[in-house]
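In this supplementary section we document a worked example of the pipeline. Step one takes a protein sequence of length 269 as its only input; no multiple sequence alignment statistics are reported here. Step two produces a three-dimensional model, which step three serialises into structure tokens for compact storage. The input and output of this example are shown verbatim.
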Amino acid sequence: MTGKVDHATQADLIRVAHLLANTARPVTLAHFRTAALVADTKALSHFDPVTIADRAAEQAMRDVLARERPDDGIFGEEYGQTPGASGLTWVLDPIDGTRGYISGTPTWGVLIAVGDADGPVYGIIDQPYIGERFAGGFGQADVTGPMGTAPLATRAPRGLDQAILLSTFPEIGTAPEMAAFQAVSRQVRLTRYGMDCYGYALLAAGQVDLVIEAGLNAYDVQAPIAVIEAAGGIVTDWSGAPVHQGGQVLAAANADIHAAALKILRSHP
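The serialised model returned by step three reads:
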């Protein structure tokens, strides 16, 4: 994919991606852990929260793109799709992990990706409260935060019985999806929940081995795909196919652990 984008365009996409993250940070922090924060729900059947910060952060990023990259398309969680003419689309999740956001936990993040029909070429997972930014694509992957800047690299292979698995919800997806997830979970050393997009960042940083989730959208997964793949990891669906449009996601630190988890997931219809 990177071969389709010349070096000048690559540099501009990186510049704009970080500009978007810089723009979203103060907007999200203005409402985080405030007594006045109110969450509406986008669904009638269950609690699917959205806040003023979600909408304001996406609008702020859209305003930047209108100025800096007006020919690119946009696909955002809150305001949907805006077509473009360049062949590139920015995929934005202004607050991934709104449940964590309204709970005051620092596991939420701003997700920014840019790519084409084949998937993302560059992505950012930004955690404004901690001040950590995980970025990857075009042959580079790094994290910048309170401890400075460091390269990102996923974990080396290890047995599934030594692996750490992350997910956001213990009640993952449908009943069959939950059964498949639990089959993997029973084989690993440790399973932790409630991580939101920060789990994918930890995978890219070499802290954990697997993230397995279901029911995701393109804006949930495209930035993590870019960052994790740039750090040396693998992200597919539960059949091993590309997953940049969302769905069942298997993110793995390396090919060995990916194959071990995939074998179990495939054995559960």
